[in-house]
Every structure is written in structure tokens, then in C-alpha cells.
Hints:
Blueprint lengths: L18 E2 L2 H6 L2 H8 L1 E5 L4 E10 L2 E6 L7 H4 L3 E3 L7 E11 L4 E7 L3 H10 L14 E5 L11 E3 L14 E3 L12 E6 L11 E4 L5 E8 L10 H10 L9 E5 H8 L7
Antiparallel strand pairs: 1-9, 2-3, 2-5, 3-4, 4-7, 5-6, 6-7, 8-9, 8-12, 10-11, 11-14, 12-13, 13-14
Amino acid sequence: MDSEVSTDDYQIGEAWSKTALTDDILTSQSPIFQRAALATAKVIGSDFVATAFAIGEKNGEVLLATNHHVIESHESCETIKIRFDYLRVGTLRCARIVTTNTDLDLTIFSVSGVNDTTKAAILNVASSFSAGAPKKGARLITFGYGAVSNPRHNLMFGSDEDCKIFSPDNETRFMADPDELNPGPYKTSMFATGCDVSHGDSGSAFVDLATGDVVGLLSTGKVPKDPRVRDTSYLKTIYDSSSDDVWKQLTYVVPATKIRELVGEFLPSP
């Protein structure tokens, strides 16, 4: 990702909402905010940075989730390093892919290099996918390593007034990737949100601010954005009317309910 690409290509609403996390910000925030931040991991490949998050333990393995387009195969897993910047547990490695699925743009993988102290720290903040359906209007927060305005790949967070679910209650669409800069080759089940994201945020958890539930996994977004999505009145119009533009111009998230439905046997309990 070119760090000089304008935020205009990615921005939803009147301002770019992503903010670099600091220790001072982290300690001043709610337990829901803190847990989501601490559970977020940097995925470091040979030529890219992306995002993953801890979902718990199963059969003795510590499991993380990210996108299929981030870690596609056992061969790519072998090259991946994992760092929890704010847990400060050292560098881990992708050990094996537990399951991967293009319909969900999902990879669940285990990590190696985990001693008892590290395992306890990760499991203390891990959150598996919720069984609750996405509800229109639910306010969200997301953490990730998106590259736009973030050349050092710091952990960023976003949760402005537009970062909410725009699609109707429990409605998903099996969609082609609307990203015109780097589109994926397969369709994925997704719902629509107004959250600011960029390349590098792939694999981020979307957390309900009211409940702390992980309601979905970022997959993609329309890039470049139509300039209209930076207009609050346009966003209000498509939100209130459930316009089809909701499915063309925003940020798209794989619902936790679909993940539990299709690969629940591989997941820790929520």
C-alpha cells in the first residue's frame, strides 16, 4: 500500500476517523475498548502488513482469525510473524491453518512460540465470534494496521458516528469485491458499515460498542470511494432509505453469525 494515497479514496463521512493508539489513550478507555485493542495482532508477511485478532483456545491451541486473502495456504502461514503490540508478549509465528474459507474470506490459524505466560495473556483478552445477528444502527469500533496516513504501521482505531451498521437487520449479500485497486477473485457474504478502513486493516474484528461482542470480520470496501460518501447528508439519505448504494460504496464485513454457521466446529465458544 502506498502511504501517499489520499485518505479521500477511503474516507467515509466528513473526516478520516482512524487514530493511532497510545498507552495514554488505551488506559483512559472503557474495558470493551481495551479488550479489543489488546486482542488485535499485527500480521507481518514478507512484503505486507495486515491484521488478526485472538478468538480463544481450542484443543490446546491458541487461535487467531484473519482473512483468507491475508493467509491463504499452509505455505504462506510458514512465512508469517504475529505481534500483539499492546500485550507485549514477543513475536509469535503462524503455526498452522485450522480452517480457511473464501465464502467468508476467513482463515483461522494457530500460533507457535506460546509459553504459559503468553497463553494466559492472550486468552485473557480473546473474544470469539458472537452468535448475535448484526443490527442496523449498532455502533462499532475496529482496530487495525491500515496503511493510509500510517506509514509506520501503528495500531489504529476508528469509532466515529458513521462507524455503524448501515444494512438492514441480519441482511447479508454474497458479493464480489468492490475494491477497484486490489480486488479479490471470489464472492463473500457481507453486511455494510460506515467505518473508515484501508488496506492493512484486512482481518480486523468489528466490535459492538454497547456489548463488546465481535459481530464480524472486515473483508473489504469500495476503493476509491465516490466523493458523495464524504457528505453526511448523503450518508443519512442512504441509511434512512436503505438505498442500494449501501451495498456499493461503503465498508463490508463478514457477519459472525455466518462464520458460526459455516465453520463453528473450528471455533472456541463465544
